[in-house]
Amino acid sequence: MERDDASNFEQLHDLVADMDDIRGLLEGITGIAAAAMTRTAGTQVECAVTLYRRRRPPTIAGSDDEAILLDGHEQRLADGPCTDALESGEPALLDAPSDARWPAFRKELEATSFDSVLGVPLDLGSEASAALNFFAAGAGVFTGEVSKDAGEFAQVAARALRLGLRIAGAELKAVDLEAAMSHRTAIDMARGIIMAQSRCSGEEAFNLLRDVSSRRNEKLYDVARSVVAGIDGSATSTFFES
Prior knowledge:
It is a single chain. The protein is built from nine helices and five strands; from the N terminus they run ααββααβαββαααα. It is α+β, with helices and mostly antiparallel strands. It has a five-stranded antiparallel sheet with strand order 2-1-5-4-3, sandwiched between helices. The N and C termini lie far apart (74 Å).
């Protein structure tokens, strides 16, 4: 198992290094998870995951369309082993048909090719939460040993996902900062143009921009861009008369 752990770590590390976005990273993680658990269980296992982040819609991904659909049903119902794993922080197993828990989810499960489900939480800190949802046909697939291996994989996967989230967050902040700087530059340029052509102070120029923004119900940045784009020696004076 140590060799498999090293291989999983390498694959997850490569996923983070090459990721384009979080959804792509999640798809890669669930693919590796499904392959790893299939080897351990000796039968086909699929995996899905739903990632929750503050102020963002949930992101769902999986190794199989049916697994993704079931994971979506579980999140919608807020009922099932994955939901319990998220709430308790501990793995939760549904070994149907003998298990009478989660009746609403079991009804959805009965319409698929899967019979048993294992939910394993990912430790992502306070800013996000997720759990791997493993699916298999037949009961008794997720033995104690398989569940233990799933938990060990989840620990490695959580480290990879935490890193991916930090990278994505840093990139998003960089984009936001770049946009903010672009907005500030346009406003400063427009203010300078107005100051030069109207021979007024910086405060007066900014108030003029703000008044036009309010009167036209346009964003201040859009008004400033119009001033900068329209400068041709006379455009600014006519711009504020309209």
